[in-house]
């Protein structure tokens, strides 16, 4: 994930690594709010890296 660990994304998005991992592997379907929150974390990291 854009050079981010699951731990870093989970901590910043205020979620658990276990839940994020299940979403990433398709074992859980996230809500739109969850997707927006995680996307915002990753987008911010990409902006900071640019």
Layout of helices and strands:
Layout: H1 6-12, H2 17-24, H3 32-49
Sum up the structure in keywords.
single chain; 50 residues; mainly alpha; 3 helices; DNA binding
- Helix and strand sequence: HHH
- Give the helix proportion (percent range): 55-70%
Mean pLDDT, to the nearest integer, reads 91
Helix and strand composition category: mainly alpha
Shape: globular
Domain module count: 1
Protein name: Helix-turn-helix transcriptional regulator
InterPro entries: Cro/C1-type_HTH, Lambda_DNA-bd_dom_sf
GO molecular function, one term: DNA binding
What does this protein look like?
- The protein is mainly α.
- The chain has one domain.
- The protein is built from 3 helices and no strands.
- It is globular and about 30 Å long.
- The mean pLDDT is 91.
- Residues 2-37 form the HTH cro/C1-type domain.
- GO terms for molecular function: DNA binding.
- This is Helix-turn-helix transcriptional regulator.
- InterPro entries: Cro/C1-type_HTH (IPR001387), Lambda_DNA-bd_dom_sf (IPR010982).
Short description:
This protein has 50 residues and is mainly α. The chain has helices at 6-12, 17-24, 32-49. It has one domain (6-49).
């Amino acid at each position: 994930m854009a050079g981010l660990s699951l731990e870093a994304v989970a901590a910043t998005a205020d979620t658990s690594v276990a839940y994020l991992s299940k979403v990433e592997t398709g074992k859980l379907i996230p809500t739109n709010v969850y997707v927006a929150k995680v996307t915002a974390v990753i987008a911010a990291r990409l902006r900071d890296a640019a």
